[in-house]
Design brief:
single chain, about 90 residues, alpha+beta, SH3 type barrels, 5-stranded antiparallel sheet, 2 helices, about 25% helix, about 35% strand, Hydgase_assmbl_chp_CS, carbon dioxide binding
């Protein structure tokens, strides 16, 4: 199963390459935010992350609700976190 999981933008690693560091449940990774180039992302914003890409900008409430729901999925959620933990865009 493939899930989009909420991550909070904590830093912009390379603005020109559209790379940002996000925190997903305590795991920090560099992801591409190129698909959201028109969304004026800022540190502190929440995004929905899938396979190293920010797919959508979401608000804090939606992030909390989504995180709560995916955590209830148990093993599928853990597999997604493990995959996120093992992936990173190299700069």
């Amino acid at each position: 199963m493939c899930l989009g999981i909420p991550g909070q933008v904590v830093d912009f690693v390379d603005a020109e390459a559209h790379l940002a560091k996000v925190d997903v449940n305590g795991v920090r990774r560099t992801i591409s935010v190129r698909l959201l180039a028109e969304d004026d992302l800022r540190v502190g914003d929440w995004v929905l992350v899938h396979v190293g890409f920010a797919m959508a900008k979401i608000d804090e409430r939606e992030a909390a609700l989504t995180l709560d729901q995916v955590q209830k999925m148990g093993e599928n959620y853990q597999q997604e976190i493990d995959a996120f933990n093992d992936s990173e865009i190299e700069v």
